[in-house]
Amino acid sequence: MIKRVRRLAAGAVAGTLLGLVACDLWVGAFRSWWDRHAFTGSVVSSLLVVAVTVLIVDEVVADRQRRDRGVTVAVQGLIVYSQTRRAYEAVTTAGEKGPGASSEELRTLTGMLLTAAPSLFDDPVARHFLEQAEKLTAALVGAVSATSDGGLAADARRRLDSGMAQVQEAVAPLAARISVEDRSALEGSAGD
After folding, report:
1. Is this structure's pTM higher than 0.85?
2. Which of 11, 18, 71, 83 gives 20 to 30 Å between its CA and that of 57?
3. Are 55 and 106 in the same domain?
4. What residue ranges of the chain have pLDDT lower than 50?
């Protein structure tokens, strides 16, 4: 929404600037009015220069920065996803590896979420992934707390499977930002 408003304002400023230049070139009365009001002309031209700089140049630079950061944010999201997957697998197979493994993986995951959250939060796609990963982490912590030596209850397992599916769905747009070679390298290390 804000981006659309900024673009409309940039278009209005550019249109105003073009209109003033055209009137100055072809309308004699317009040109003579500005000649008689030099201070007003100076103020208006200064404001237009500031508006062009702020609205147009700044928007171009901001778009370039968002594109450049998009891959970095995606890589960070995939790293968090890898740890999320490890924690999920540790909790759902806790009977095989012992309760200590799942607690350690969850501790690592919560630390990663806290570290990565500021950079993921600014990107709407990454923010959605972050929310899903946080919800799954909370469910994993709850499952570990409620798990007896017999393993996960069927209802808890379904909730965790559903949460993991939502995380996988949320990470897909982030993964699409990364080249296939880099993505396979990241996912390969995630499976280790």
Report:
1. no
2. 71
3. no
4. 190-192
